[in-house]
Amino acid sequence: MRMRTRSGPVRNENTHQAILEATAMLFAREGYDRLTIEGIAHEAHVGKQTIYRWWSSKGDLVAECLVAGMLLPDRLTLPDTGEIREDLRQWLTEIFRIIAEPETEGMLRSLISGAAENPQIGSRIRESLIGTDSVTGRLEAGIGQGQNLYEGAPFDEIAEALIGAVVLRALSRTPPSEEDAIRLIDAVIGPELPIPQSQR
């Protein structure tokens, strides 16, 4: 009986990791616009054809680095204490602090530039790093804790509004503050609802 051979490129894990590490290092140093496949290949000590065998563009490479957690810090995860307003305050304050750091601000701005060219990068920023899914889930769990948090509310759109504010801050280079985070929370999810007398 004839054995069936595997078709398509076989990925060597050491080479794969070397390419991702080279991409992350050059991205942090050069930014997205100046990142090239030639530079990545040189840094990883591989041929360009090896990279193109597995990735179709530098945008795909950057997106995979995002998924692997090799670019932005993992401190962007939304906490879960059961109090959605406090969780959002901590989350936004930490994000604003992170993007105020020159190195992170430049990297995030470069990622946003890359997202304009490659939609997959934007998707990975939103889903894997800032975490639209986790934000949406936390908002749904906070029903009743804000005027706009009600059964059937547009939670995805509320999450997008919060994330959009983060992106706008990164682009505008406006120094944020904890007060800005609180005002944003009030604007997006509505003011805190009073506790009913029966629950006091």
TrEMBL record:
Gene Ontology molecular function: any one: DNA-binding transcription factor activity
Gene3D superfamilies recorded: Homeodomain-like, Tetracycline Repressor, domain 2
Domain HTH tetR-type, first and last residues per copy: 13-73
Cross-referenced SUPFAM superfamilies: Homeodomain-like (SSF46689), Tetracyclin repressor-like, C-terminal domain (SSF48498)
DNA bind region: 36-55
Top-level division of the source organism's lineage: Bacteria
Keyword Transcription: yes
Keywords: DNA-binding, Transcription, Transcription regulation
Family matches, as InterPro entries: Homeodomain-like_sf, HTH-type_TetR-like_transc_reg, HTH_TetR, Tet_transcr_reg_TetR-rel_C_sf, TetR_C
Pfam families from the UniProt entry: TetR_C_11, TetR_N
Cell cycle is among the record's keywords: no
UniProt cross-references to PANTHER family, sorted A to Z: HTH-TYPE TRANSCRIPTIONAL REGULATOR RUTR, TETR-FAMILY TRANSCRIPTIONAL REGULATOR
Name recorded for this polypeptide: TetR family transcriptional regulator
Protein's organism: Ancrocorticia populi
Upper taxonomic lineage: Bacteria, Bacillati, Actinomycetota, Actinomycetes, Actinomycetales
